[in-house]
Specification:
Length: about 150
């Protein structure tokens, strides 16, 4: 997963834990620390607050990812390590305490091409809905119900 996607995933995870008032204080502390790093490194050019209001919004996630890339915080090791810390703390919790996250969620779809690759989600990986395809849609390398703990056991 590219650094910007890892950062967004960590922010979605942290925002979800905070919004649902679940998780240990370690997750929330790591999340607050990540937000502080991002604010400092981006000089306030990355707005995490919109994501906190709608952590499962793909539009908010995409906008945030663009801001992260534009502010070049996706290459800052403090931010990257902060994102990893949030995910590591979340992975330490019992599975029932972790809210599932959907990795991609399309609704009406039509296609005539779409290529999705390297999708990682703690919940559902992809989730189409209506359809119409005829020429298109290739989905590869989906890890649904993913946890780094499970991956390390292989």
């Amino acid at each position: 997963m590219d650094p910007a996607s890892t950062i967004v995933l960590a922010l979605v995870t942290g925002a979800t834990f905070v919004a649902q008032a679940i998780g240990e204080k370690e997750v929330q502390e790591a999340y607050q620390s990540l937000k502080t790093f991002i604010a400092q490194k981006s000089k306030g050019n990355v707005n995490v607050e919109r994501l906190e209001k709608k952590p499962n919004s793909e539009a908010q996630q995409n906008a945030l990812k663009e801001e992260i890339i534009d502010a070049k915080v996706d290459s800052d090791m403090d931010v990257i390590n902060g994102a990893k810390a949030v995910l590591e703390e979340a992975n330490k919790l019992p599975k029932e305490n972790i809210p599932p996250a959907i990795g991609v969620n399309l609704k009406e779809i039509e296609a005539a091409f779409m290529y999705l690759k390297d999708i990682t989600a703690t919940g559902t990986g992809v989730n189409l809905e209506k359809g119409k395809f005829q020429g298109g849609i290739t989905i590869t390398e989906v890890k649904a119900g993913y946890s780094e703990k499970l991956d390390q056991k292989k």
